[in-house]
Each structure stands twice: as structure tokens, then as C-alpha cells.
Amino acid sequence: MKLRISLLGAFALVSLTACDQPANDNPLFPLAAGKQWTYQIETVYDAPDAKTTTHTLEIRNLGSAQLSDGSQAWVRRSNNGHEYWLVTDNTGINRVALKSPSKEQAVMDIEPRTVLPAGLAQGSTWTTTTVPYFLRRRNEKPAEFRYLNKYKDLPMVFKVVDMDTALQTPAGKFDHCVRVDGTMEMMLWNDEAFAYKPTPILSREWYCPGVGLAQVERDEPTTAKLFQGGTMRMRLLSYR
After folding, report:
1. CB of 59 within 8 A of CB of 36?
2. pTM, two decimal places
3. E-only strand ranges, 16-91
């Protein structure tokens, strides 16, 4: 059974201060209170019925809160109402709980989910769970695969492919960024093979010093006429 965050966590959020930050704050994923990021998310869906959707996402660091076991977490909230509870320690940065807009309290993850491990190096790998972001069924409800239980918590293998790359975004040009690529396979019906086949889902993420997550690209291809996939790009518009 999943554990829940204690009410003490909610009370702790009331007294956030601008200097509230981890002693070992990671410059590739800052958790200090008050920091804020705005992204543009563009999703290009495959034909037929090809379309492009664009929206913005804002994420703000709320500061620290106490978990029910007395340990400290760091809370990030998006403008769509989701809260992500993160712990930073000698293993790296891990998500330990999630609060959705429909819940009164955050719910602990069964296992911590790695965001960035400690000691990143060229070729470093780790595995964490994910869901399809936008791959959908054309004629069934719910349409998005992420709402189907069998496609939740799929393992994706991440690998550091570049420790020193430059990145241009609408928020500016950033140097010495780390690029992380993720790969997983979903069993999906394939029209050409007329069978279920492993279908690769690919992710590319850029983390820049002092900025954090600056860009994400995601490929979720269409394999059947009853599915609709495509590509997504999330780019940093501004941060402070």
C-alpha cells in the first residue's frame, strides 16, 4: 500500500523563504525556493489527421517540506496543478511523491524515481519509469495511452551521451550542458507486420548548469492506422 505525505509537509510549505535550498543543490537541476521556468511545448502529430498543438508549461520551486518519516523533500509545482516531491542525497535527485490536482495530499511513489543520479559521467546509465506522453488511440476512450494501466510505469533506460554540449533555446544560448538520451520499447500493434511488435520510444533531454532542464525532445511513432503518434519538443522560454 502506498504511504501518504504527512500534514506536516503541507504546513511546512507556509514558511518558505527565498534562501530555502538544499546544501548540495545540483546546478543541473536546481531546487532552491523561488526559481521558476517557463517552457513552450510543441507536439506534431502524424498523418492522417496531422496537427500541431502548442502550449506553455510553468514550473516553480516551492521549497522544502517534511515527509512523514521526518526526512526533507523539495517541492516543485506546475501551472497545471501537479506537485513533484524530490529528495536530493548522495544517490542523486529522486522523485519520491506526486500530488495531482485531484488529490488533497501527495502520494508516495512505491519506489523513488531517478531524475538525475549523482556522479554523472560520459556513458552513465540508469533506469526509471515513464509513460507515453502523447501517443493516442484514434477511436477509443480514453485516447491517450498514458491513462491505460498496462502502459503506466514503463521502464526507460537513460544514458549520458554528452557532458559538454551547447544548446540554443528561446531563453538564450547555454554552454557545458549535459545531454541525456532515453530509450524504451512498447509492445504495440504494427500494421505492416500484422502483429504486436516492440516499438521504440525515444527521449532526449538537455540539462544546463545554473539553469536546469532546458529542452526535451520525444519521439513516439505511429505503428497502426488506429493510433496517432508524432514528436514533441519542450523548449525553455524563460527562467529566473
Report:
1. yes
2. 0.89
3. 36-45, 52-66, 72-78, 83-89
